[in-house]
Amino acid sequence: MIECRACPRLVGWREEAARVKVRRFRDWTYWARPVPGFGDARARMLIVGLAPAANGANRTGRMFTGDRSGDFLYAALHRAGFANQPTSEHKGDGLALRDAFITAPCRCAPPANKPLPEELLRCSRWLDEEVALLPRLKVVLALGAIGWGAALQHFARLGIPIPRPRPQFGHGATTLLAGGPALLGCYHVSQQNTNTGKLTPEMIDRVLVRAKELIQ
């Protein structure tokens, strides 16, 4: 995965971010490659985000690490007992997840945080292969509509029947799939959502309580 260069637009963007840098990270050597998933190999909950941030995971090489979105997410996971600490700053910071694994349908930082449909399609093989390594999976928590759609497409590729009409994303939406994990929706932890109050700590806490119920 980390050697993949299948999408020229994404390769150019992730590497430009590593060259130009923002002032506060000018001393960093950026990861600037596809970002693999992170977490507990025996996880029963899979979190599906969107894509690495140009100066977050594209810099640190770990999902949701080094930016405000990650700060919000890992603090919530810590409160819910899925993480041993509330912060994620770099790979050597001691963070460990318990019963949770984090991935994304797009592994490279996209311009404007918007991967193209064909880029998501090319990247889908990595999602499929990574999820196959999680044999205890009970719940997929999708952060945002793109993560929700990518999860449904993943299940469809496995031959798991998708209900009709097709389940629509929503905060707190739950879909139980015959022969597959439960799918649970949550607004994305982007600063656009958390700074405006569209997603609050209390809201994500309630979703994680629901995830625990579905795991059991």
Helix share of residues? 25-40%
In DSSP terms (H or I, runs of 4 or more residues), the helix count works out at 7
Summed over residues and divided by their number, the pLDDT gives a mean of: 97
CATH topology: Uracil-DNA Glycosylase, subunit E
Number of strands: 6
Describe this structure in words.
The protein has 216 residues and is α/β, with parallel strands linked by helices. It has one domain (8-215): Uracil-DNA glycosylase-like domain (Uracil-DNA Glycosylase, subunit E), CATH 3.40.470. Helices cover 36% and strands 11% of the residues. It has helices at residues 8-20, 57-60, 68-79, 117-131, 145-157, 191-196, 201-215; strands at 38-39, 45-48, 100-103, 139-143, 174-176, 182-186. Strands 1-3-2-4-6-5 form a six-stranded mixed β-sheet, sandwiched between helices. Strand 5 (174-176) and strand 6 (182-186) form a beta hairpin. The chain is globular and about 50 Å long. The model has no long low-confidence stretch (mean pLDDT 97).
